[in-house]
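Async update (no meeting this week)

Hi team, since we skipped the sync, here's where things stand on the single-chain job. The sequence we agreed to prioritize is pasted below, unchanged from the tracker. I ran it this morning and attached the output directly underneath so nobody has to dig for it. Comments welcome in thread, and please keep replies under the output.
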Amino acid sequence: MVKPNKPSQTPAMPADDFHYLIERARNGDRSTLPELRRVLLDPHEVDALGGDLALQAEASFVQAMAGDDLAVAQVRQQRLQRRRCASASRCDVVE
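Output:
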């Protein structure tokens, strides 16, 4: 089993190269798989591709509950953020 690396402070590759790699992979270029697997060991790279399923589910939930009402959306997002903070050792500031 491959263990993910600790998140890096810098991207695994330049943004242009990363986007080109992803474009090729999305078009079915199997030769991208070894490099794609290496890059995706970095959690930040996974998140850049929408790989955080919990956040995707949360965003869908907030959208479904709030619709076009931005005030309700903000209330729901703040409430979910507070719950995450209560269960985590640290809390990211929401702007």
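Quick observations from my side:
The longest helix spans residues 70-87.
The chain is about 60% helix and 0% strand.
Reply here if anything looks off.
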